[in-house]
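Quick one: co-fold with fe (ii) ion.
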Amino acid sequence: MNDTNKQPNYNIYFDRDNIKDALVCMNEYGYCVIRKMIGLKLVEELKYSIDEIMDPARDLPQASNRYHVQFAEESKPLWKLMNHAPYLNYLSQVHQTNNLCLHRSAAILRTAGESCGTWHTDWRGHIKEPRTPNDILNRYSLPSGNWFYLNGSHPDYSGIAVIEKSHIKDWKGPEGFEFNPNKTSFHPTGDFIENGYKKMDVPGCIEVIADPGDLICFAPLTWHTNMATEERRYSCGIGFRPKSIKIKAPWPLPITAQRMIERLPKHLKSYANGYTGIDVQWRANPRIALPKNGKNDTF
Ligand SMILES: [Fe+2]
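Sure, here it is.
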């Protein structure tokens, strides 16, 4: 990393017909950007879909956000990715099979004025007794980020920042920092912050720069956060897993998932075989308090 501008001194950008080298980069540094994965027409369709589903009255206040953690269950444009040869090629190479099912999906809408988010990893594989839906779903070797930042990503207006090489098993955390007890956030050594650290001055921080239509990928354990938001911003992602990874979810298939499966056209129906949906209210121990608004920021 170049310490002054938080940009890598190695290449992280790859064309969509060179997934092989993109995955080499992701394996080495924990992240990569695949250029022009989708065109600007689909970018606009996805943004409109986020507006219609998540903010139909266009009343999301400034400096706030909304999360949708089953976006594929409602967004038709998101499924256009599954008719898009470059994306299918990416999926088959990253998973090394075409025999895939829907794993999870999400979209985030933010408005200007939000500050930088908490550094975190989505990985929950180290948690021995799963207690939340993320503990159940985020414990497999699946890329954590298959994410479209539909406004692009840039430190001047927001997007994603990652910590290079933080995807390596047994990573000890950034120099000068220590993990919180459950190892899902960190704070300066000796200066505990209950909700985790939220500034960019972390060793290894890369402020990812990408264009609308680029696919930003990161590995299962890679630590990341969103940069401060200076505009209305849209992002979404859809994740799949090999059907060989079978998950017996402790929640029943939600009605919204059932409706999606009924609606899926014939040629996409096989992606529903194995889909668990998500019940964000589910807890292994019902006495555990829900996060604010029943949401969390760990996907
Ligand atoms: Fe995350």
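If it helps, The longest strand covers residues 100-110.
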